[in-house]
């Protein structure tokens, strides 16, 4: 029988093993089990990442911002060869 569950590494380095899993597998002292360990990646976005979202404050008008964006773009003229 194969049962998958998430567990925490305890402060003493041991792996927590829930009683209900032990009972479902009918495990007793000295039984051997196969353990495959993979780290669970936290899917929750970090506060630093979330801080990059939202709006910004700017004293310029929309037209001034657009002009600044287009004015900062650079394009190459003809003459480039490979």
Q: How would you spell out the order of helices and strands?
A: HHH
Main structural class: mainly alpha
Number of strands: 0
**Helix proportion of residues, in percent?**
25-40%
Cα-based radius of gyration, to the nearest Å:
29 Å
- Count of DSSP-assigned helices: 3
Report the span from N to C terminus: 63 Å
User: Main beta sheet, described?
Assistant: none
What ranges have pLDDT less than 50 throughout 5 or more consecutive residues?
none
Q: What is the oligomer described by this structure? A: single chain
Strand residue content: under 5%
Shape: elongated
Describe this structure in words.
This protein has helices at 19-24, 47-50, 62-72. It has 82 residues and is mainly alpha-helical. It contains three helices and no strands. It is elongated, with a radius of gyration of 29 Å.
Summarize this structure briefly.
The protein is an all-alpha fold. The chain has helices at residues 19-24, 47-50, 62-72. The longest helix is centred in the last third of the chain and has 11 residues, at 62-72.
């Amino acid at each position: 029988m194969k049962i998958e569950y998430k567990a925490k590494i305890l402060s003493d380095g041991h792996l927590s093993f829930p009683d209900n899993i032990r009972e479902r597998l009918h495990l007793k002292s000295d039984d051997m089990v196969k353990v495959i360990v993979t780290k669970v990646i936290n899917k929750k976005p970090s506060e630093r990442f979330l801080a990059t979202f939202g709006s910004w404050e700017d004293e310029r008008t929309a037209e001034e911002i657009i002009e600044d964006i287009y004015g900062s773009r650079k394009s190459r003229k003809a003459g480039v060869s490979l």
